[in-house]
Design a protein that fits this description.
- It is a single chain.
- By secondary structure, this protein is an alpha/beta fold.
- It folds into two domains: about 220 residues, Spore Coat Polysaccharide Biosynthesis Protein SpsA, Chain A (Alpha-Beta Complex); about 190 residues, 3 Solenoid (UDP N-Acetylglucosamine Acyltransferase, domain 1), CATH 2.160.10.10.
- The protein contains ten helices and 41 strands.
- It has a nine-stranded parallel sheet, with no helix packed on it. Strands 5-4-1-6-10-7-11 form a seven-stranded mixed sheet, sandwiched between helices.
- Helix 2 links the parallel strand 4 and strand 5.
- The longest helix is centred in the middle third of the chain and has 21 residues.
- The model has no long low-confidence stretch (mean pLDDT about 95).
- Bound molecules: uridine-diphosphate-N-acetylglucosamine (UD1) and calcium ion.
- The site of uridine-diphosphate-N-acetylglucosamine has 28 residues, from strand 1, helix 3 and strand 10.
- The site of calcium ion has 4 residues, from loops.
């Protein structure tokens, strides 16, 4: 075998998360719409740790699927039975034997930031320790392993194994460690499970290290919150709020303007350029990107949207998996979804739904319309109430409308259908056949006026009423 080299990180995520009271594996519970597991992986990546593995067990299939889709470089390692954190590290032995320095951390500590990982790695390499781990102080240490310091020797005692004196210690183990793998591989298989939970505890390797004269150092981290673990829904909600505040602060410092940060929600993977303006009650999720000068109106929800510069969402807009071009205007009350693209200067207005459609430059869909599977050219105007009848009950069919067209109000476009450049449709038409360039399509019953009909009807009903009141 070649010499172990470099730094790797092993994330422990096989546990059940009993206290979440949910069939969803704990590390897939969301913080700002992204699974818990995303956060430590992102912190490691930002700290420059590129080799990563995740120990999976409970809900292994779902967790592995998430990893494959979002972190293809991360290696999932199966721990079939969950016999404790030490057992999880044993299960991944084949993987970590190839690295020289191993970070071990729990998958349920989402507030961990890259600075903490960097500080831990720096301390480890400068000190010549065989193991360095992070601790913090907390007013109520319930549930955490307590750090029992005794000169050069230091051990962790778990809540369930601790004496009353030990329980009073409020310096606790974060579960985040760095090991020299040369030392770790000597001791990891010597763990025993004679404890209250009958588990193989990873922290039990620490005394084995120091008994052999290897240096172990607890690194006390002042910003305790960074290391908090998530075990129940209350802690999940608290971490959600903390993460949200951190993200908002970062954007505000970068020149993004928010009228009301208290009601603004922004996910961790959202990119905002300076000088974006965000009104109250806005949610921005997924891999959304918003460019300079764009305005996001109140009550809008964006998910995987690309909003170009100076675009404007007026209010109550939902934009999902879609792109809004430079200077385009949307809403109020518009829904733009499923790979739609509104080109520069275009407009989708009041009560308009656009699905999987392309609206060309400077074209307008101002009111009460549905554009589904449509491709619309430039400078075309779509009258109020126009609908693409794209679904025939089994298939979705396309509509094509050229440049400089004028679609009269309340036109039904029965797809598949093509309307060529510079054509008109008469209001209220049901278009079932292609319209040639420059033509007017009229497809509705011709109007007939019946002279005097309304007046005669009124006279009849007046007489009837008089008859009733006399009898
Ligand atoms: C652990 C530490 C404790 C520390 C705390 C910090 C042990 C024995 N105790 O306790 O000292 O204060 O973290 O949050 O390590 N896991 C596996 N396989 C298993 C068991 C657990 O992958 O067989 C994973 C879990 O999914 C979790 C992590 O390891 O992400 C920690 O396990 P958990 O049961 O939450 O340990 P704690 O009781 O919190
Ligand atoms: Ca935990």
């Amino acid at each position: 075998m070649s010499k172990p080299e470099g730094t790797g990180a092993l994330v422990l995520a096989a546990g059940k998360g009993t206290r979440m009271k949910s069939p969803v594996p704990k590390v897939l519970h969301p913080i700002l719409e992204e699974p818990l597991l995303r956060y430590p992986l992102a912190a490691l990546a930002e700290a420059g740790v590129s080799r990563k593995a995740v120990v999976v067990g409970h809900g292994a299939e779902e967790v592995t699927r998430y990893l494959r889709q979002n972190w293809p470089e991360v290696v999932p390692v199966l721990q079939e039975q969950q016999k404790g954190t030490g057992h999880a590290v044993q299960a991944a032995g084949e993987w970590w034997k190839a690295v020289e320095t191993l970070v071990v951390l729990p998958g349920d500590a989402p507030l961990l930031n890259p600075e903490a990982v960097e500080a831990l790695l720096k301390r480890h390499s400068e000190s010549g320790n065989a193991a360095t781990f992070m601790t913090f102080r907390i007013e109520n240490p319930f549930g955490y392993g307590r750090v029992i310091r005794n000169g050069a020797h230091c051990r962790i005692v778990e809540e369930k194994d601790a004496s009353p004196d030990e329980l009073r210690v409020n310096e606790v183990n974060s579960g985040i460690y760095v090991f020299s793998t040369a030392a770790l591989s000597r001791f990891i298989d010597r763990l025993e499970n004679r404890n209250a939970q009958g588990e193989f505890y990873l922290p039990d390797v620490l005394p084995l290290f120091s008994e052999s004269g290897l240096r172990v150092e607890p690194l006390l981290w002042e910003k305790a919150k960074d290391l908090f673990g998530i075990n129940d829904p209350l802690q999940l909600a608290e971490a959600n709020r903390e993460m949200r505040d951190r993200i908002l602060r970062k954007h505000l410092q970068n020149g993004i303007k928010m009228m009301d940060p208290q009601t603004t929600w922004i996910g961790p993977d959202v990119l905002l350029q300076p000088d974006v303006w965000i009104e109250p009650d806005v949610q921005i999720w997924g891999k959304t990107e918003i460019q300079s000068g764009a305005v996001i109106g109140s009550h809008s929800i964006l998910r995987n949207a690309l909003i170009h510069e100076k675009a404007r969402l007026v209010a109550f807009c939902c934009v999902t998996d879609s792109e809004i071009g430079p200077g385009a205007k949307v809403g109020p009350f518009a829904c733009i979804r499923d790979d739609s693209f509104l080109a520069g200067g275009s407009y989708a207005g009041k009560f308009v739904e656009v699905k999987n459609s392309f609206i060309g430059e400077n074209s307008k869909v101002p009111h009460l319309s549905y554009m589904g599977d449509a491709k619309i050219g430039k400078r075309t105007n779509i009258g109020a109430g126009t609908i693409t009848c794209n679904y025939d009950g089994s298939r979705k069919n396309p509509t094509r409308i050229g440049d400089d067209c004028f679609i009269g109000s309340d036109t039904m476009l029965v797809a598949p259908v093509v309307l060529n450049d510079e054509c008109f449709t008469a209001a209220g038409s049901t278009i079932t056949e292609d319209v040639p360039a420059g033509a007017l399509a009229v497809a509705r019953a011709r109007q007939k006026n019946i002279e005097g009909w309304a007046r005669r009807r009124k006279a009849v009903s007046r007489k009837e009423e008089e008859g009733w009141s006399r009898s």
